[in-house]
């Protein structure tokens, strides 16, 4: 009797695995995972020299390729910085400088 019960349980568990659709994408039908809200970063300045590219993000100097707080600095351009955050590319742009006009 026990042997029959064990055989039925083994057969039932193998059938459950066989009923899953192998073409279904991973995570299909699962409850959506709560994503962390995107953190806001403040780009203060960019310095580009012959041998280095650095950006001041949240008051800290960051270099290309450097990782911090789960984010990686992908590329530093003259007017923007590309970050990789949770597998997505985010772009930080410098705020334009105010135009100064002469009052004369």
Structure description:
By secondary structure, the chain is α+β, with helices and mostly antiparallel strands. The protein is built from 1 helix and 7 strands. The protein has a 4-stranded antiparallel β-sheet, with no helix packed on it. A 3-stranded antiparallel β-sheet has the order 1-2-3, with no helix packed on it. The chain is rod-shaped, with a radius of gyration of 27 Å.
Keywords summarizing the entry:
104 residues; alpha+beta; three-stranded antiparallel sheet; 1 helix; 7 strands; 34% strand
Mean pLDDT across every amino acid position:
80
Principal-axes shape call: rod-shaped
Q: What distance lies between the first and last C-alpha atoms, to the nearest angstrom? A: 104 Å
Helix content class: 10-25%
User: How would you characterize the largest beta sheet?
Assistant: 4 strands, antiparallel
**Gyration radius over CA:** 27 Å
Coarse structural class: alpha+beta
Q: How many E-type strands?
A: 7
Widest β-sheet, arrangement of strands: 4-5-6-7
**Runs with pLDDT <50, length 5+?**
none
Condensed summary:
The protein has 104 residues and is an alpha+beta fold. It has one helix spanning 2-18, and strands spanning 43-48, 53-57, 60-63, 67-68, 71-76, 80-85, 88-93.
């Amino acid at each position: 009797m026990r042997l029959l019960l064990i055989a039925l349980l083994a057969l039932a568990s193998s059938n459950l695995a066989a009923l899953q659709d192998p073409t279904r994408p991973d995570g299909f039908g699962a409850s959506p995972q709560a994503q962390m809200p995107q953190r806001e970063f403040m780009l203060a300045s960019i310095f580009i020299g012959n041998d280095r590219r650095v950006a001041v993000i949240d008051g800290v100097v960051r270099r290309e390729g450097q990782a911090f707080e789960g984010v990686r600095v992908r590329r530093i351009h003259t007017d923007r910085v590309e970050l990789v955050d949770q597998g997505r590319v985010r772009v930080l742009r410098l705020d334009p400088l105010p135009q100064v006009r002469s009052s004369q």
